[in-house]
Write a structure and sequence with these properties.
Rossmann fold, 10 strands, alpha/beta, 8-stranded mixed beta sheet, 334 residues, globular
Amino acid sequence: MPATTQAAPVATARPTAQAGQPNGHSRHTSSPFVDFDRAAWAKLGSTTPLPLTAAELERIRSLGDDIDLDEVREVYLPLSRLLNLHVQEGGRLYRAYRTFLGGTAARTPFVIGIAGSVSVGKSTTARLLRLLLARWPQHPRVELITTDGFLHPNAVLESRGLMARKGFPESYDRRALLRFITEIKAGNAEVSAPMYSHLVYDIIPDQRMVLHRPDILIVEGLNVLQPAVSGSALTISDFIDFSVYVDAPTADIRRWYVNRFLRLRETAFRDPASYFRRYAALDTEEAIRHAEGIWATINGPNLEENILPTRSRASLVLTKGADHGVSRIRLRKV
């Protein structure tokens, strides 16, 4: 999502490790989730080799995200192993259905949704999981799309008075997004999606990403876990097989957002083609005021109204601490 229109989760998951509970995870019978601290979670992937180099991680890491190989090994490798198990079980269920129905249709892609805030590391999580999952031999064809491509073009947003709400649910072409995911889960041989440029802050005309029945499709975006809106029978979350919500306290996300804005002022905003070039000339104090104003008028309301309420719908929640590292993992029980 563009740097000026997103919000951040405000609350963390409750503490995970409890006195008297072994392995650093809690077993509350009244909760549909099992909570792990990082050490306990890391053990779940301790026997899995790390198929990633520091150079590869550097290439996919988002601005301001200080993830290192230790975190990949302790957090994301166990997650990729868990996802691999889900994909394999989905394959067994597909074969059973095919036998039961007497059909010959090919298996449809396994869809993973990644939700969360700008600056929380949602994009890095999506790119990292794509790389890790593609290196499991069972499903080498893994694709990634972001819901940014389904934003209405700026001209449409301007005509509807929605430019100041870019990133809110109403700024997306939800019918097009639902049609796309429906075609993916229908097993169509070729499905295309529009493309978005963060540099020009708009949809790229006449350019589309074409997908050819990937084994796994990762869909990353603010609103991928939202329930159906009033009057709609279906929504994108109905077609997601496993979902991850990247979470953190509001104060940390807000600080990361402002820091990223300052870094972009020194880098991408200086590009002559950048939609945000006007911000490159701001001094530090002015830039901080501007970033905090965007947070207060756009990011916060979008968070409270639309993003945070979807956290409880996720299959798994990654909660980050002040250092941007994942400290807790909450997994929905099967």
